[in-house]
Amino acid sequence: MTVELVLSPAVVSDMVAKLARAGMREIGGILMARQIKPGHFEVVDFSVDDMTGERAHFVRDPSYHNDFLQAFFERTGRDYQTYNYIGEWHSHPGLTILPSLTDLESMESLVDGERDIPFAVLLIVRSDHPDEFLAVSTFHQRGAAPSPVQISFDSVRTGNV
Fold first, then answer.
1. Phi, psi (5° rounding) for residue 114?
2. Which domains does the chain have, with CATH numbers?
3. Cα 10 from chain centre
4. Which end of the chain has the lower number of beta carbons within 10 A, N or C?
5. CA-CA distance, 138 to 55, in Å (whole number)?
6. Which DSSP state fits 76?
7. Contacts of 140 (CB under 8 A, 6+ apart)
8. Using alpha carbons only, how large is the chain's radius of gyration in Å?
9. How do residues 55-107 score in pLDDT, each as one tens digit?
């Protein structure tokens, strides 16, 4: 399956601002998306854990994001068919934006684990200065090897979230 992830200018701008505040520390969180059609998702919101990252390491603390999830589902009317968790994101400041072995193992553990998450994307971003935004994404599905995700930078939303 080909997967496309749409990052709107507003999402990119918000990420760039958060990355600038973090400086050379990795930050990250969860990605929430609207499904446009099967395999085609627009990121509509994301959480940020900017407390636990280090220079070259980030592990998301799930408890940190519970309030974010509850607020997101309230805003979207608990319309889980349209709006839902799509995956994880984190930064690689000053480093390659390719996923590390640790990144890939974490995503494999997520989709192959006991949670009801059959697939997820991993988005890795970098913005070492305000005019830079680099991103790469991989698709992880239970029982399958990771595959590249096509990223587009556009806005296709028709409503506010």
1. -85, -10
2. 4-152 (3.40.140.10)
3. 15
4. N
5. 22
6. T
7. 87, 107, 108, 110, 111, 119, 120, 121, 122, 146
8. 15
9. 454 555 666 678 888 899 999 999 988 999 999 999 999 888 999 998 999 89
